[in-house]
Design brief:
It is built from eleven helices and twelve strands. It is an alpha/beta fold and 346 residues long.
């Protein structure tokens, strides 16, 4: 899969997305500052969300629309989205700002009108949120635009994920990556179930990453070690700037550290390799080999008392011990001499 011309998947560096979401707290200048900060911290992409309270839900105070648990407990859905949304009139300007900075710009559409709006901005790819995984008509509409899709799978059963993939593939769009996700804010590490990443790779044969709502960088770096190709984390300038997303977002110094750790993990993962590495070359001389450990006269029998496997590696390999024991030396051998076949009769 390619995102904006960049390879994403096995063998490529993890693609790191900084999710702005509502962390602009109603200020376009702060949104621009977040874009610059994300670039400085090593993010490959800045992501926003394209919706309004009216495209997301309806203004209703029925119990169905009240949040009674979690980070947003006590909120009404409509009022929450009014606080968190990114004004559509900002988005073209933010897209241009990202291009100027040199960072990819991505958005999550939540209905057909937002897809149409983003098409006018000519975004190179789309993000699907976990909560919209089950909105098959929306997925089909996004897929019909023939652009790469990164889809979160939080809360999704295996059947629901399969249905979502089928809906996208049914539009002839096979440019798809999936994100393992725990749709809790913040997510508990013990509920991240990161082993699912490998299972998703084996089942669906697409790039798989992590949309990470847990605190810190531990889950993200672990996911990369397990083969994650994409990492998405909420990003803010400061958690003291209050908004619906601040409590589970990373500040710049934290995000930068995460990116550095991810890149170090990638270095350590390397490639499948056996044998002596360049750094190990010198130390090969300290492997074990067969040495004379007591002075041996010409014609004397080699025994376990006068021949041993010790460090360093100048003598015969230890695997030849059984072949030389009982043989006779063809010349005097001083203690500390590496044993060679030339020292042995026959």
């Amino acid at each position: 899969m390619k995102i904006n011309g960049r390879q994403v998947g096995e063998g490529a560096p993890a693609y790191i997305i900084a999710e702005m979401s509502g962390n602009h707290a109603g200020s376009i200048e702060r949104a621009k500052d977040i874009i610059y900060a994300a670039k400085e911290c090593g993010a490959d992409c800045i992501k926003i969300q394209t919706y309004t309270a009216d495209t997301m839900t309806i203004d209703c105070d029925n119990p169905y629309f009240q949040i009674t648990e979690g980070t947003w407990k006590g909120e009404n859905l409509y009022k929450l989205y009014q606080k968190a949304f990114t004004p559509w009139e900002w988005q073209e300007e933010l897209s241009k700002e990202a291009k100027k900075v040199g960072i990819d710009f991505l958005s999550t559409p939540f209905d057909q009108s937002s897809v149409d709006f983003l098409e006018k901005l000519e975004l190179p790819f789309y993000k699907v949120a976990s909560f919209e995984l089950v909105d098959i008509p929306l997925l089909e509409y996004i897929a019909s635009k023939k652009k790469p899709i990164v889809m979160s799978t939080g809360m999704g059963s295996l059947e629901e994920i399969e249905e979502a993939i089928a809906a996208i593939y049914g539009q002839g769009n096979h440019d798809l990556a999936l994100l393992k996700c725990s749709s809790a804010y913040p997510a508990k590490r013990e509920e991240m179930n990161l082993r699912t990443i490998k299972d998703m790779q084996e089942r669906f044969h697409v790039p798989v990453g992590l949309s990470d709502h847990s605190m810190g960088s531990f889950s993200a770096t672990t996911a990369v070690a397990l083969g994650a190709s994409i990492i998405e984390k909420h990003f803010c300038l400061s958690r003291t700037i209050k908004n619906p997303d601040c409590t589970f977002s990373m500040e710049p110094h934290e995000f930068k550290q995460m990116v550095e750790e991810v890149r170090e993990v990638e270095k350590a993962l390397g490639k499948v390799a056996y044998g002596v590495s360049k750094q190990e070359e010198y130390n090969t001389r300290f492997r074990r080999s067969l040495f004379v450990v007591k002075d041996i006269a010409a014609g004397e029998t080699l025994t376990k008392e006068n021949i041993r496997s010790i460090r360093p590696s100048n003598g015969l390999k230890p695997k030849y011990m059984k072949d030389v024991l009982g043989k006779k030396a063809n010349k005097p051998l001083a203690k500390g001499t590496p044993l060679s076949f030339e020292d042995i009769e026959g």
